[in-house]
Backbone:
C-alpha cells in the first residue's frame, strides 16, 4: 500500500479537502456577490443617466483584489497542511518563512495568464448580462427608466449563482496550486494521485481520472486535457468549474 503524506484513506482525505473548500467558498461568495451586484447596479445607474452601459474596467480591478485574497487564504489553508506533515516526517522546515512563502505563491498564482483571463472574463460577462437585459427591455418597448427599474429587481438573482460558482472554482484552483508548491518545500520525493469525489455528481472525465498517478511536476490527463491539479486555471470550464476532486500526495519509495 502506498504511503500517503496526509490521510492514508484517500476518500476520507477528499472529503476533508471538500470541507475546507466549503469553508473557503462560504468566506468569499458573499464578497463576490457584493462586487458583482454592486457593479450591475452602478452600470444601471450609468445607463439610466446616459443611455449606455459602461465598460467593466472598475469591476476588473475590484475582482483582482478579491482573487488575491482568495488565493492567499486558499494557499495558506492547503499549503500549511502539507508543510505540517513534512515537519512530522522529520524534515527541517522550521527555518523557512512560511508566511512570506504563501504570500509569494499567491502572487505567482494571480500572475498566471490563465487567471488574469478569468478575472477579465468575469468582469466582461457581468457587463454583458446587463447589456443583454437592457436589450431585452428595449425590444419590449420599455423606456430607459423602466428598463433600469426592471433589471435592478433581477440583479440579486443574476449575481447569486455566479458568486457561489466563482468562489468554489477559484478557491479550489488556488488551494491545489498551494498544496503542490508546498509539497516541493518538504524535501520529500512525492508522486500525486487524482482522487475524484466518486458520487453521482462526479463528471465522467473526472471519474475516469480517479486513481491516476503522476510525478510531482507531471500533468494529469483529464478528458484529453493536461491539468496539473484539480481546478487548474489552464483547464477548460468543462473540467474545472465546480470541480470537487482532490490530490493525494504519495511518498515515492
Residues:
Amino acid at each position: 500500500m502506498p504511503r500517503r503524506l496526509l490521510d492514508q484513506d484517500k476518500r476520507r482525505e477528499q472529503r476533508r479537502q471538500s470541507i475546507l473548500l466549503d469553508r473557503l467558498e462560504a468566506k468569499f461568495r458573499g464578497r463576490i456577490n457584493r462586487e458583482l451586484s454592486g457593479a450591475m447596479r452602478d452600470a444601471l445607474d450609468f445607463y439610466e443617466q446616459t443611455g449606455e452601459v459602461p465598460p467593466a474596467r472598475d469591476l476588473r480591478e475590484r475582482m483582482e483584489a478579491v482573487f488575491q485574497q482568495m488565493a492567499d487564504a486558499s494557499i495558506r489553508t492547503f499549503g500549511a497542511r502539507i508543510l505540517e506533515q513534512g515537519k512530522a516526517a522529520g524534515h527541517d522546515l522550521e527555518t523557512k518563512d512560511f508566511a512570506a512563502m504563501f504570500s509569494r505563491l499567491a502572487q505567482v498564482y494571480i500572475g498566471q495568464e490563465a487567471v488574469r483571463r478569468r478575472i477579465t472574463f468575469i468582469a466582461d460577462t457581468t457587463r454583458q448580462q446587463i447589456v443583454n437585459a437592457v436589450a431585452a427591455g428595449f425590444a419590449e418597448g420599455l423606456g430607459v427608466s423602466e428598463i433600469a427599474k426592471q433589471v435592478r429587481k433581477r440583479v440579486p438573482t443574476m449575481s447569486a449563482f455566479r458568486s457561489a460558482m466563482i468562489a468554489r472554482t477559484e478557491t479550489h484552483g488556488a488551494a491545489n496550486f498551494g498544496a503542490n508548491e508546498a509539497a516541493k518545500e518538504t524535501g520529500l520525493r512525492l508522486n500525486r494521485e487524482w482522487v475524484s469525489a466518486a458520487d453521482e455528481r462526479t463528471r465522467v472525465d473526472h471519474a475516469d481520472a480517479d486513481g491516476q498517478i503522476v510525478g510531482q511536476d507531471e500533468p494529469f490527463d483529464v478528458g484529453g486535457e493536461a491539468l496539473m491539479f484539480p481546478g487548474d486555471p489552464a483547464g477548460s470550464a468543462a473540467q474545472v468549474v465546480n470541480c470537487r476532486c482532490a490530490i493525494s500526495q504519495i511518498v515515492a519509495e
User: Anything to note?
Assistant: Residues 48 and 145 are 6 Å apart (CA to CA).
